[in-house]
Amino acid sequence: MAGRSSVESAGTTKHRVFVSSFHNHEAYRRSWDELFSSILTTVSVEPGEIDDSSSAEYIKRLIQEDYITQASVVVVLVGLKTHCRKHVDWEISAGLNKKVGGYSGLIGIWLPNHPNFGSGKSWTADSTPARLADNLSSGYAKGFDWTEDANKVKGWVEQAFKARVEHADKIDNGRPQLTKNLCD
């Protein structure tokens, strides 16, 4: 495996993942980096790294070319308002676009502040990014509760990585991309 899919580290596969999150959940994204940097290579957009006043097409192109093409799996950290953020939608869409370096695996991880966390339900459509919900429904993506267990996370990422090939026929990327944030 080479390029965007993984890097070899001491004989083990170290997947590259793109972590998508609402900026209000930056603490969880940073925790992700700290907790899992020994098993994963994380790629994500840092706060302020992309000028939000730029055109939508320019921002989408940056997300695709500078971030998503480097990752084999997109991990969406799902908090209270993640479902209504246009950049999260664009990032998921780019990961599911074969033209953007091939398909990425897709995982949703419910943060402790989300009503589904710990409820036994993996997701509800009204509080999950719609494109992620489409792919949870189709069976392409999987959803999990936030954990600090590296072995669980490594297994989830490996499962999503394999789904890129084994379940690519289940990818649902047909809905129009969000043109604006649906909430503050």
Features:
six-stranded mixed sheet; alpha/beta; Rossmann fold; disordered N terminus; 5 helices; globular; 184 residues; single chain
Overall description:
It is a single chain. The longest helix is centred in the last third of the chain and has 17 residues, at 150-166. Residues 1-11 have low confidence and may be disordered. This protein has one domain (6-170): Rossmann fold (3-Layer(aba) Sandwich), CATH 3.40.50. It is globular and about 40 Å long. The chain has 184 residues and is an alpha/beta fold. α3 links the parallel β4 and β5 (105-110). Strands 1, 2, 3, 4, 5 and 6 form a 6-stranded mixed sheet that branches. It has 5 helices and 6 strands.
Give me the Rg, rounded. 15 Å
Give the overall shape, derived from the CA principal axes: globular
Structural class: alpha/beta
List low-confidence stretches.
1-11
- Domain count: the total is 1
Average per-residue pLDDT, rounded, comes to 85
What name is given to the CATH topology? Rossmann fold
Quick take:
The protein is 32% helix and 17% strand. It is of the alpha/beta class and 184 residues long.
How are the SSEs ordered, and which strands pair?
Layout: E1 6-9, E2 12-20, H1 26-36, E3 41-43, H2 56-67, E4 73-78, H3 86-95, E5 105-110, H4 130-138, E6 142-145, H5 150-166
Parallel strand pairs: 2-3, 2-4, 4-5, 5-6
Antiparallel strand pairs: 1-2
